[in-house]
């Protein structure tokens, strides 16, 4: 079959494989630090759609004009999600990431009011409870990255009635993690911690970096966007 578009360069494939590979988290954060300068170019080559899809999903769920809403972008990287949120009228953005190199790039965008370093899963978010109208985690919920146990920490900093927008990949090597994540999400729903607004499977999430990961030979992997609303959900306004 003819390949659509350009083939991914070996460099892109190696850099993506490295951060998704095994090894200690400290090593992976060092790789992210080193990747920061080329990250946006590389994900453009990957046709990485998660920031756009997640921001669109959140904007769809969001009831009010978003300018005053406080948003937390967890594992914010270089600020790709912030760019998408900004285009949709969100202006009050805070970010956290485990990589100092990524935070430096995010700071240079001028889109965040505050940025902090935090290795989620190893330490709590350095933020007060029930503080944000929405919390985003785009791309970091995956094997060897942010553990599924961190979801309760995301809930803690979200206001009652606030939204959480999470994404994960559905490629073969992440299916174990995805199943574990979905069990955590369902358990929190059973406990009445939040209710599901949306779970959308997306076929062309980003280009696969190997044939093994590709969905039925398409050259792409699939992914999913989840949106939840923290309980208690406020009643609809009268009028």
Set down the secondary structure blueprint:
Elements: H1 10-20, H2 25-35, H3 39-45, H4 50-61, E1 70-74, H5 80-87, E2 92-97, H6 100-109, E3 114-117, E4 132-137, H7 151-156, E5 158-169, H8 175-190, E6 194-207, E7 220-230
Helix pairs in contact: 1-2, 4-5
GO molecular function: S-adenosylmethionine-dependent methyltransferase activity
Domain Methyltransferase type: 72-165
Pfam families: Methyltransf_11
Briefly say what this structure is:
It comes from Rostratula benghalensis. The protein is an alpha/beta fold.
Describe the structure.
The protein has one domain (10-230): Rossmann fold. Residues 1-5 have low confidence and may be disordered. It is built from eight helices and seven strands; from the N terminus they run H-H-H-H-E-H-E-H-E-E-H-E-H-E-E. Strand 1, helix 5 and strand 2 (92-97) form a beta-alpha-beta unit. With 239 residues, it is α/β, with parallel strands linked by helices. A seven-stranded mixed beta sheet has the order 3-2-1-4-5-7-6, with helices on both faces. The chain has helices at 10-20, 25-35, 39-45, 50-61, 80-87, 100-109, 151-156, 175-190, and strands at residues 70-74, 92-97, 114-117, 132-137, 158-169, 194-207, 220-230. Helices cover 34% and strands 24% of the residues. Residues 72-165 form the Methyltransferase type domain. This is MET27 protein. It comes from Rostratula benghalensis (greater painted-snipe).
């Amino acid at each position: 079959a003819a390949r659509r578009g350009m083939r991914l360069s070996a460099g892109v494939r190696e850099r993506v494989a490295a951060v998704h590979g095994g090894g200690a988290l400290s090593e992976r954060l060092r790789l992210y630090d080193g990747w920061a300068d080329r990250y946006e170019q590389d994900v453009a080559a990957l046709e990485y759609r998660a920031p756009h899809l997640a921001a669109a999903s959140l904007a769809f769920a969001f009831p009010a004009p978003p300018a005053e809403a406080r948003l937390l972008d967890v594992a914010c990287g270089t600020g790709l999600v912030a760019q998408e949120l900004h285009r949709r009228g969100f202006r009050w953005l805070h970010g956290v990431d485990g990589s100092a190199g990524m935070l430096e790039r995010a700071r240079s965008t001028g889109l965040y009011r505050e940025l902090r370093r935090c290795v989620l899963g190893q330490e709590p978010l350095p933020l007060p409870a029930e503080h944000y109208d929405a919390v985003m985690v785009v791309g970091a919920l995956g094997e060897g990255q942010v553990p599924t146990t961190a979801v309760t920490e995301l809930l803690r900093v979200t206001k009652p009635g606030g939204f959480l927008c999470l994404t994960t990949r559905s490629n073969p090597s992440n299916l174990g993690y995805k199943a574990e994540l979905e069990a955590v999400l369902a358990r929190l729903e059973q406990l009445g911690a939040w209710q599901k607004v949306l779970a959308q499977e997306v076929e062309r999430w980003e280009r696969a970096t190997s044939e093994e990961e590709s969905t039925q030979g398409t050259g792409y992997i699939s992914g999913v966007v989840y949106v939840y609303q923290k309980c208690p959900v406020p009643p609809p306004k009268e009028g």
